[in-house]
Amino acid sequence: MTFAATAPLAALSRIIPVLRRPVGSQLAAFGSVGLVAFLVDVGLFNALRATILADQVIWAKVASVTVATGVAWLGHRYLTFRRTRQTAIGRELLLFVLANGGGLLIAAGCLFVSHHLLGLTSAVADNVAGNVVGLALGTAFRYSAYRFLVFAPTRKDRS
Question: Which of 32, 50, 71, 92 shows the greatest Cβ crowding within 10 Å of its Cβ?
Answer without folding.
Answer: 92
